[in-house]
Amino acid sequence: MKTVVCVSQKGGTGKTTLAVHLAVAAERAGKAAVLIDLDPQASAAAWGDLRKEEGPAIESVQPARLAPTLKAAADAGCELALIDTPARSENTALDAVRVSDLALVPCRPGFFDTAAMSFTANLLKLAGKPGFVIYSQVGSRAAKWRLDDLTEALTIYNLTPAPVVVHQLDAYKDGIPAGLAAQEYEPKGKAAAEATALYRWLESVIAK
User: Fold this and answer.
1) Which of 57, 66, 78, 143 could pair covalently with 73 via S-S, beta carbons 3.0-4.6 A apart?
2) What is the DSSP track for the chain?
3) Is 119 exposed, middle or buried (0-12, 13-18, 19+ CB in 10 A)?
4) In what order do the strands lie in the sheet containing 102-107?
5) CA 22 to each of CA 101, 146, 147, 172: distance values in angstroms, whole numbers, following the listed order
């Protein structure tokens, strides 16, 4: 079983949205997935309670139960575990990164998110794990130069951006009250296409 953690010490970057949509994308691609919610707010678990669709499995656990939960998921035949972490909780985030194969770091294209990236980059360095930045909540009118500048700024942290950008689209949030991801709420929409493309990229990375 491969384990991927969505982590950022900055709040509001879209960790839960990213984890939810990748978990659904994995299931739709035929991979048994589990989403482990470590955030005390339990937003991913609350979304799961609203679902009527099959999969993914969702577990809301205390950080101390992460390792046995991962083992149980692997023993049950899960092929991909996605971990949703809380913001501003270094110990929990570090423990989650340490047990993961790869970290995904959502980052909005703005000064505050970029400035806060050093804290998350230090966590990855301490854990010795690779990480990719996911540009999230990118406005439809965002200029390419803005993302290029952000990419250049992130080089000091040895973080590489993923090739798929997550835009600020209503479908990512409109399906949440019904327990749906964008792929299910608006299957032919742009958000669904982005989520699917992002999962395909992730699958190619963790398969190496």
Assistant:
1) 78
2) -EEEEE--SSTTS-HHHHHHHHHHHHHHTT--EEEEE--TT-HHHHHHHH--SS--EEEE--GGGHHHHHHHHHHTT-SEEEEE--TT-HHHHHHHHHT-SEEEEEE-SSHHHHHHHHHHHHHHHHHT--EEEEE-SB-TT--HHHHHHHHHHHGGGT-EE-S---B--THHHHTGGGT--HHHHSTTSHHHHHHHHHHHHHHHHHT-
3) middle
4) 57-60, 33-37, 80-84, 2-6, 102-107, 131-135, 160-161
5) 15, 26, 22, 12
pTM of the model: 0.93
Instruction: Supply the mean pLDDT for the chain.
Output: 92
Domain that holds residue 124: 2-206
**Could you give the CA distance from residue 94 to residue 86 in angstroms, rounded to a whole number?**
11
**Cis omega (within 30 of 0) for bond into 109:** no
Inter-axis angle of helices 111-127 and 90-98, nearest 10: 50
- The number of distinct structural domains making up the chain is 1
- CATH assignment of the domain containing 66: 3.40.50.300
pLDDT digits (tens, 9 = 90+) for 89-142: 788 999 999 999 999 999 988 778 887 888 899 889 999 999 999 999 998 766
- Given a cut of 90, is residue 9 above it in pLDDT? no
